[in-house]
Write a structure and sequence with these properties.
166 residues, alpha+beta, elongated
């Protein structure tokens, strides 16, 4: 019994580096939520992020992004906690998880490609980084998507018909 208790931190540390971190990166990059919002004193914008919106279109140039660091870190930690709890419960209560080298290498390869791609996108000098979103916004519509799915921008006049010019 005592040996099992002393062994758990080592097992979870191995699972963290072999499975949990790469699964976190992969799920963080592929499964998200889109938010169609009206920021105060700004144009309608599409944001992405689950459970908090952390990236959206920039307003100062067409190919820029606004990235909110606090929301990004919070979202990443929630994904990490989810995978940690799932794998912890499976490993402790259902069956022991054995990590094979081919699976670990495959997951880390996919994660590495995602990290390199995200780093490349984040290195564009036109992007604006904020510690926290500096404005309030009114959420008009939300939905879930995979990263490869295209999200159509909802019709602004559906929510504000009084602004429509005849």
């Amino acid at each position: 019994m005592l040996c099992d208790i002393l062994r758990w931190p080592t097992i979870m540390k191995q699972l963290t580096f072999k499975l949990i971190l790469p699964l976190t990166v992969i799920s963080f990059a592929t499964i998200t939520k889109w938010w169609y919002v009206l920021p105060i004193d700004a144009p309608d914008t599409l944001y992405s992020g689950f459970p908090l919106p952390f990236v959206g279109d920039g307003w100062h140039t067409s190919m820029s992004l606004q990235i909110f660091i606090l929301e990004l870190v919070t979202d990443f930690l929630i994904y990490f906690l989810f995978w940690f709890l799932v794998l912890f419960c499976v490993n402790k209560y259902l069956s022991t998880i054995k990590t094979y080298k081919i699976v670990t290498v495959g997951l880390w390869t996919i994660s590495g490609i995602i990290i390199l791609g995200a780093s490349y996108i984040a290195s564009v000098p036109e992007h604006r980084f904020y510690f926290k979103r500096p404005y309030q916004m009114e959420i008009m519509q939300t939905g879930y998507k995979f990263i490869w799915q295209h999200t159509e921008r909802p019709d602004y006049y559906k929510y504000h018909p009084e602004d429509k010019k005849e």
